[in-house]
Amino acid sequence: MADLPPPTDLTGGYAPLPGAADELFAADGSPRPVWAPLLDWLGDRPAEEIAERTARGDQYLRDAGVYFRLYANDPGQEREWPLSHLPVLLSETDWGQLCTGLTQRAELLEAVMADLYGPGRLVRDGHLPADLVARNPHWLRPLVGIPPRSGHFLHHLAFEIGRSPDGSFFVLGDRTQAPSGAGFALENRMATTRMFSDFVPRSHVLRLAGFFRAFRAALEAQAGPGRRAAILSPGPSNDTYYEHTYIARYLGLMLLEGEDLIVRDGQAMVRTVTGLEPVGALWRRIDSEFADPLELNESSQIGTPGMIEALRAGGLGLVNALGSGVLEVRAMMAFLPRISEVLTGAPLSLPNIATWWCGQPAERDFVLENAARLMIGPALDAALPFATGAETALGPAETEALAERLAREGADLVGQEAVTLSTTPALHEGRLVPRPMTLRVFAARTPDGWTFMPGGYARIGKTADTKALAMQAGGSVADVWVVADAPVPDDTLVPPEIVPRATAGALPSRAAENLYWLGRYVERAEGAIRLIRAYHLRLAETADPADPRLQLLEGYLAGLGLGLDQPVPEALPGLIGTARDSAAKVRDRFSPDAWSALNDLFKSAGRLTRKVGPGADAAHAMTVLLRKISGFSGLVHENMYHFMGWRFLSLGRAQERADAMLMLLTTFADPAAAPGALEIAIEVGDSVMTHQRRYRFGPAHGTVLDLLMLDDNNPRAVLSQVVQMRQHVSQLPHDPTEDRGSALDRALLMLDTDLRVAQPETLTTETLIALRGRLYEVSDLLTARYLR
């Protein structure tokens, strides 16, 4: 009998960091019971199996397309999601106490928000300095006196939580503006479930779906009957855009950007391909200041002019209300303990990190006297204390400089208690090591009060340095398991009863436009790949640079912006990147497989641009790209549900294919073209075998035009594309008053008719050029009717 592999020694040598609380050990040094089952289960498995399981989780995240974006305008600056493979475990008892304290805090924040944008008693009675509120960049004067439609300012919150050395929790920061991370928490859970697939079902871990079900119901109730709820995103350049697309798919909500909305008579409306449709509630993921360029930041290009008008009229509800970022700044924490007693009659049951605003003489003196044990940073910044370049352990010279700075800039600074973050076990090179950690806990308002996501996510430091917590600085994230004492029921978003089939959702005009141009750009890229391959196949046949076929192809490619200064033009990856940019703007309507295929195509084109040589090598490389782009097209066109979005994608593809074929034939089927041009035309038109079967002799001018222009059974022929376009347009929304069809219908009908009655000998070069002009007209009509 073969020896069993040795169990993994995970905990040997594990020791908490000095002075820090640790999730694995309680304050008295004893192991926390909640960890025992998982550690026992891991300890029974060899290191190789644990490595295979963690790789399984990473692979899931890659396959699902989970990423975060570096702060940049380039949508390509994506990084793999940095999962810390070991979850953070909390007992249900600890979790319940934490949620009780956070419920009180959520109600307190709501009350403060209502006062700051209402009667202003906190400032009037001296509980908040007027200067601190007035200079807060997130306090928005135009919102004062505008009551929220729902009666509440705050509906979705996140709290940054730390643990004290005695085991108790405290608040490091409040996230009230547009908290991120809830969608990533779902993906973390999916990944850890893949890794621990045989442990999770019997681990009593509380499920997450109930939280999202309750929040979606509350959001839809806030929208009101006959009005939609949607997510408002800043767009693909945002570092958490993936989450916006994921949550939109998961909850079945429209994903909108500012340009999708227009305000009419105090009502927010979505521009869709069927016309304007009312929106009643928006889950806002853009910062307040950029929401309305008319009344807030006039330079904003991601907002909607008139949004505040809709709020005043009561025609729109927001999650959360505009101006809620005022609660996030670090200076606010200096006043919340006292405000809690004033507004609720009770102290904070869950304290926040001790904070002193240096705009007051006594607090300024205290900070100066105790600077060596405080963290000092910007008062109106929302970053966590240890992420602001705090100044601590000052010597005499620094203390003197600090005194001058406090006297000069005191109102801009806060001092905060220098806390030591708690640590949690993390897997590193097959062993457990302590790493600093903060929890992010999510809360949602429902008709029954605040509900909390039972878990959330934790931010894990890359090293023992607390400044390396942020992902931008190399930190990672972990799933958080709240473990019950008894088995928990399965919970999903799926209702128990059979529901009727949903009607097609509204398609915003912006989404339709991006799908249309995605179809065009992908087809344009495929045509470019076929032309480059045709060039290099002929280059491999002859060493004569004066070969007229090479000169014809080289000139044609140059006219398309694909100059052959190197075997694979640098412009080719750029062309594929343009398609990817269009796809990035409609990620919520794409499967992860399709997005991965398009990304792979883009990366492959970039690699080949740098590596391949001319001739047969480049021709083979183009064949590889052709297979990849065909795979993407197959995934999209065969697997995408045939809603209107698919029709606009298909319209773009047909429009581009017809236009490219007309352009190709204008040059390569011209009677004056060089010998061999017709062979190039049918090769680039992917019709070589069909031509051989149909005509049984080499290409002639008439046979090429007949096959590539007039044969509606040839999927590359212009007539075939026009037929497809007519079919798709017939399924789009139409004005019932247009009993004779729209201008778009009539233009396509006339094109169809003229092509059906045409003969190859009548298709002169001038005729082909005129047909291209008519196709341009079709595109303009389609754009004017549906994409504006």
Explained architecture:
There is one protein chain. This protein is α+β, with helices and mostly antiparallel strands. Helix content is 43%, strand content 14%. The strands form four sheets. Strands 3, 4, 5, 15, 16, 17, 18 and 19 form an eight-stranded mixed β-sheet that branches. Strands 6, 7, 8, 9, 10 and 11 form a six-stranded mixed β-sheet that branches. A three-stranded antiparallel β-sheet has the order 12-14-13, with helices on one face. The protein has 24 helices and 19 strands. Helix 13 runs antiparallel to helix 15, helix 18 (644-668) packs antiparallel against helix 24 and helix 23 (743-757) runs antiparallel to helix 24 (765-786).
In short:
The protein is an alpha+beta fold. It has 24 helices and 19 strands. β8 and β9 form a beta hairpin.
Task: Name its key features.
alpha+beta; 24 helices; eight-stranded mixed β-sheet; 788 residues
What does the secondary structure layout of this molecule look like, with pairings?
Elements (H helix, E strand, L loop, with lengths): L35 H8 L3 H18 L2 E3 L8 E3 L7 E4 H25 L4 H4 L5 H5 L21 E8 L5 E7 L6 H14 L13 H15 L4 E5 L8 H11 L2 E3 L4 E4 L2 E6 L2 E10 L22 H6 L4 E3 L16 H9 L10 E3 L3 H9 L4 E5 L17 H14 L3 E5 L5 E6 L2 E16 L2 E4 L4 E4 L15 E8 L25 H33 L6 H12 L11 H14 L7 H20 L4 H24 L4 H25 L8 H8 L3 H8 L5 H10 L7 H13 L12 H15 L7 H22 L2
Parallel strand pairs: 3-19, 6-7, 6-10, 10-11
Antiparallel strand pairs: 1-2, 4-5, 4-16, 8-9, 9-10, 12-14, 13-14, 15-16, 16-17, 16-18, 18-19
Helix pairs in contact: 2-6, 3-10, 13-14, 13-15, 13-17, 13-18, 15-16, 16-17, 18-19, 18-22, 18-24, 22-23, 23-24
